[in-house]
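Notebook p. 47: complex prediction with zinc ion.
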Amino acid sequence: MNEEEKNELRESLKAQRKEVLDDVSRHAAKGRGVGVIADETERADKIAENMVEHALGYSESKLLEKIDYALERIDQGTYGICENCKKEINIERLKAKPSVSLCIECQTKKESGAS
Ligand SMILES: [Zn+2]
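Predicted complex, structure tokens below:
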């Protein structure tokens, strides 16, 4: 993976992260009838993020976890390496789903239940 691809994937992870958070904050704001989200200041951002954390569903928080983990791995330079077999994950696979941490073989094995 070259720097350009890495940056591209980082951006796409960030965009995905924002999407999940935006989605959840919309639900949270709707449910509670509060207008915190409208404010663009950093403090409001923090409050919104805390609220969002409470409002997160299981699958959403799992996804966010994966995205954060992937971003961490980009910083550490271990991104794109399969966590199971330590081979490089196919770049097309990463582009399609940047939060993955397993290569297609390991993912398939995991999903089919055989380890
Ligand atoms: Zn693998």
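Notes: Residues 3-111 form a domain with the Four Helix Bundle (Hemerythrin (Met), subunit A) fold (CATH 1.20.120.910). The mean pLDDT is 85.
Next step: compare against the earlier run before touching the bench.
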